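Researcher: Next entry in the queue.
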Amino acid sequence: MQLNPVKGTAPAADVEFLLSAHRTTKTVTIDETFVRSGQYETNRKIVKAGTILGKVTATGLYAPVKKTLLNGAHSAGDTTIAVDDASFFQSGDTITVGNETGLTVSSVDYDNNIITLSAGLAGNQADDAEVKAENGLETADCILYNTVDLTTAELTFADAAATAVTHAVVKEARVKGANTKTKADLTRIEFR
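Model: Structure for this entry, 192 residues:
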């Protein structure tokens, strides 16, 4: 595994989500395989400061949490689901929708927050049912302190070391991936 070291200190703009200087941090490694290319810049995998991270069960590495809510009720047989925020989901993700597990994402319309499934829902799902990954990224663990670019000089992608916040007071509007479910996981983070 190739790691890209974090160089220098985080620019002030990186930590605009923090409301106080007091915080507890830890070092994490971002798993590039769970980060979407082109989200912020074409052909680059970037994770912005203030992104809520989860821990991948299989590797122990970190990536953006994949947990949101259905936007509207959906019926058995539906292969497309509208969600509140599809930003971090990718084709190939295995997800749970409401009480249905083992669903595979075939594509994501990021502009309209629509996830297309490889097979239809088995049953009806209510508005605000939880939609989440099944690989550890369904549970929020920390918040990325500094923006990390996982793109190498050769324009390939590699895992990278980073700093994450585990205890702090934060400005909710500046935290990427914050919703009622992810905030409930982060018991040592105070959202304002």
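Model: Residues 5-12 have pLDDT under 50 and may be disordered.
Researcher: Noted, moving on.
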